[in-house]
Structures are given as C-alpha cells and as structure tokens.
Amino acid sequence: MIHVQNLVKTFGSFTAVNDVSFNVAEGEIFAFLGPNGAGKTTTIKMLTTLLQPTSGSIRLDGLDPLKQQNEVRKRFGIVFQDPSLDGDLTANENMEIHGVLYHVPHKVRKQRTEELLKLFELWERRNEQVKKFSGGMKRRLEIARGFLHTPRILFLDEPTLGLDPQSRNQLWSHVKSVNERERVTVMLTTHYMDEADRVAHRIGVIDHGKLVAQGTPREIKDSTGTETLEDAFLKLTGSTIRDESAGSADQMRQFAKMWQQNRR
Amino acid sequence: MSAIYILWLRELKRYTRSRAQIVASLGQPLLYLLALGFGLGPVFKKAGAGNYLQFLAPGVIGMSVLFSSIFSGLGLLWDRQFGFLKETLVAPVSRMQIMAGKTMGGATVAVIQGTLVLVICLIAGFRPAHWELLPLAFVFMVMIALLFAALGMAIGSGLQDMQGFQLIMNFLVMPIYFLSGALFPLAGLGVVMRYVTKADPLAYGIDGMRNVFGSPLAAFDPRLDFLVLAVLGCLLMIFGAYRFSKIEA
Fold first, then answer.
1. Over the stretch A39-89, which tens digit does the pLDDT of each residue have?
2. Which residue of A has its CA nearest to B164?
3. B60 vs A240: CA distance, rounded Å
4. Which end of chain A is more exposed for a tag (fewer CB within 10 A), N or C?
5. Could you tell me the pTM of the whole model?
C-alpha cells in the first residue's frame, strides 16, 4: 500500500531523510519510531504531499504523490503532530469543512459525523467552539475528523501526545478496530514504545534520517537481544538526548498560548 | 465549487463571531474621520477646497476596506501557526479553489466592514451628491477588497512569523494608505509625490469612490480608476494563486 524507495530530503546542507526505503502492506499497522528530529515527520510530510522529496520515489496505493496529488489525497487521512483545527468554529463545523473538502456526500457526511462524534464522546459538545475544548478533546476531534472520509491509509503523527491513559487506550482500540473492520492501512509515529509494541504489526526505527531497523516487534527485540521494545530502541538509537531547534512556528505557538491565557 | 463556498463561509463565520474585533477595527477609521475630519476641516475650508468631511469620507471607507482585506490575506499566517492551513493543503481540492474561497471570503468581510464605515460616515454628516450611484461605490469597494485580499494572500503565502507581519504593516500597508490620497487631494503635488501616488493602487479605488459619490477634488477619470483596479486586481489574483500553490508546510 505504501511503497518508499531510496527517499532523500535535504534542507540546505542538512539531510533530514537519508536514503530511506520501506514497504507497508495493505491492512498493516506500521509504527515509525525514532528520537526527536530523526526525520519521522519529514517523511510523513513527503508521503502526504506536503513536501517535495529531494530524490527517491513514493507510491501510495500505486499512485505517485508528486504527479497525482489529488488522487493520492483522497486516499489518505492524517492526524498531524500539532493541532490543525479551527478554534473559532464548532466541532460540527470543523467536521463539515473536512467533509466538503473531501467530497463526502451531504447525507453520508451527516451520518458519519454523528457516528464518529458519538464514538469519540464529543457529540454532546458538537456545537461548542473548539477553542473551549481541552487538549484531549481536540485530539479526539482531529482523529474523528481523519476518519470522516473513510481513508484507505491513515497517517497518525504522534496522535497520543498529551493524552491521558484512558484516551490513549480508547484511541488505539478504535484504530485497531477500524484497521480490522475496514482494512485501513495505518502508519503511525509515537514516543510510547509500549503502544507501538501493542498496536503495530511491524516497526521501522529511524535515526539521523536513516532507517536502522525494520521488522515485527518480536524480530526487533530478538535482533538486539533485549526484553522490551524500549530497550531495543535505546540500543539502536543510543541514549544521547536530541535537541530540536525551535522554529518560528513553535515560538509563535507559545506566544499564542500566552495570549489566550491573558484573555481569559 | 462547494469547497470554495465552505471556505468563504468559514471566513464569514470567523468574522461575525469576533464581535470585539469588529468594534476594534471600526475604531481607527472612526478616529481618522472625527479627529481629521473635524480637526482639519477649518483649514481645508480656508484653503478654498470645500468641505473636508465630504472629501475624507471615501478615503476612510477605502482605508477600512484596505486594512480588512489585506489582513484577511495575511491571516494565512495565523492559519499556518494554528495548523488549519495544513488541513486544507492535504485535502483533495486544488490550491486554486482554496485560494479563491479564502480571497472571496476576505473580500466579503472587507466590503461589510467598508459598509459599516460608510454608515458611520453618513451619521457623521457625509452626504453623497449622487445617491443613485451608490451601487457603483460598492463596485469600487469590491474591487479594492479583491485586489488587496489577493495581495495579502500573495504575501501571506511566504510569511513565517510575527516579525514579518510588522514589516509588511509598516513598509507596505501604511504607505499604501498614506500615499493613496485618502487624506489629501492628489492634484497639485510635487513631481515625486505625483508619481508615487500614481503607483498606489488604492489611490484609484478611493478616487473612484470620490467620483461616484460626487466628492470634491477627484483626480482621475472614473473609467481610468475602474480599468486600473480591474487589470491590477486580475494580475494580483494570478500572482496570489501562484504564490499560494508554492506553499510547502
């Protein structure tokens, strides 16, 4: 379903993704693990048509994201690492915009919106502005939105960041059930190794832009001779802490947070 | 088509929901209208140029349309920071449609804002000489709004942070406003000012409104005003769409 061959992305002299190749079969859950700044998000951005690769090839469902952008975009749903909701609109309106942008017919849209909002326990608050939601509720809404247009592939970029164990559990059980019921292919990234161990069929570990290991959780643990995936991960990627430079976007977000607090 | 509509509607909803912002954005034109209108009025009269308020009103309306429309385009920066931009960029909709929806939404909001200021001007004592030409004044408002919303989009597409926003504000938006002849007549200026003001697209929008309202001291032929706005508006929309299509998140 996802086919990546010798993918490279450079920003100036910095190589964010360096010769990465992997395949994800249809109906598979693939976890993409790596320390901060390893190149996970950059890879996902290239897969989802947001960035142009420097070289290498990508096929999603046999289509080229560079040449058949809209066809590819119809086939995947994505939950971004950072929020992508419109806070001034209500939960319902956010779903509506998404449905219209993805050409979901009006009737189906209404019905699925109700189903999904009920499933993620947001139905009672559907007519409230999203900016009044808690972090967990926003996250749930984004995930519900990602499912609205019944994608063939679902990208989840650290979807459980900042969620409590209850919401995390609920999220993964739902992802698993959709994966089994609708045979949606899932590619996810996370920093919680136990989640990856539990949910993923296969795992790829990326570090400094290079794919350092690939296989089932069992295979990865066996090949490194470790008991848990966390140990295996540390063995593969070392224990030095990575610093990510804060871009202007992060600074702005911080500013925006302060601003919103002051207004309350 | 429905994508354009839903994004247009989004801009409108966001506008009507921020009441504080609506009031705040009326403050500045109001200040210009009252402080300058009544403050400089006597001097203007003494110079033999007629009623300053009648002259100033189209300028203040043009100002509010300019600010509102260019900010809506620059609002792309907020969409980028709060992440909503990405949601639209990965959707199976052409960038052209996204750009069209946002530009038209921003322009609609700007025209509403301009209409509010027109009403305030009428309350303050502004009296158009030709009421029957009022629809034409709206045509000019719409053209100013579309032109600057597109310009805002073109700039907003490349804007990454707040500092850039300040830069645009001080070195583009304010000069466009002050050099448009919104506050002073364009006739009888020195050589440099004459050329600078002629290069300012807003000058033609405000002049067009002066022409149709029958305000004193209009500088150009209304047909020229219309032509410049139409041609430049189209060019900026193409440029804006091009810049928007190049965004990488």
1. 898 999 999 988 889 999 999 999 998 888 888 998 999 998 888 899 999
2. A248
3. 60
4. C
5. 0.86
Spell B4-16 as b/e; 16+ CB within 10 A means b: bebbbbbbebbbe
Cβ-defined contact of A73 to B91 (cutoff 8 Å) = yes
Q: Which CATH architecture has domain A2-263?
A: 3-Layer(aba) Sandwich (3.40)
Give the chain A residue whose CA is nearest to the CA of B83: A84
Domain boundaries, chain A: 2-263
Q: Enumerate residues 6+ apart whose C-beta is below 8 A from B161.
A: A248, A249, A251, A252, B77
Assembly ipTM: 0.86
In this structure, the dihedral spanned by the alpha carbons of residues B77, B78, B80 and B83, taken in order and rounded to 10 degrees, is 180
Sheet holding A29-33, edge to edge: A76-79, A153-157, A185-189, A29-33, A202-207, A210-215
Partners of B14 on chain A (C-beta within 8 Å) are 86, 88-89
Phi then psi for residue A19, to 5 deg, are: 55, 55
CA angle A162, A164, A165 (to 5 degrees): 130
Cα distance between residue A109 and residue A99, in whole Å: 6
Output the average pLDDT for chain A: 87
| Alpha-carbon distances, residue A25 vs A65, A152, A184, B239 (angstroms) | 17, 12, 10, 42
Residue B61 CA to residue B64 CA, distance in Å, equals 5
Cβ proximity of B165 and B73 under 8 Å: no
Higher local confidence (pLDDT), B38 or B140? B140
pLDDT in tens, A155-205: 999 888 878 888 888 888 888 888 888 889 999 998 888 889 999 999 999
According to DSSP, the β-strands at A153-157 and A185-189 are: parallel
Cα–Cα distance measured from residue A30 to residue A203, given in angstroms and rounded to the nearest whole number? 6
| Beta carbons within 10 angstroms of residue A13's beta carbon | 5
From edge to edge, which strands make up the β-sheet containing A14-24?
A14-24, A2-11, A55-60
One-letter amino acid of B30: L
Distances (CA, A) of A138 to A84, A102, A141, A145, B83: 9, 20, 5, 10, 13
Q: Residue A255: what pLDDT? A: 62
- Min Cα distance B101 → chain A (Å) is 12
Do A103 and B92 lie within an 8 Å CB cutoff? yes
The full set of domain ranges for chain B reads 2-245
pLDDT tens per residue across span B99-130: 999 999 999 999 999 999 999 999 988 999 88
- What is the rounded CA–CA span in Å between residue A232 and residue A223? 9
Considering only the beta carbons, identify the residue of A48, A100, A129 that sits closest to B3: A100
Give, in order, the Cα–Cα distances in Å from B29 to each of B117, B166, B213: 7, 20, 18
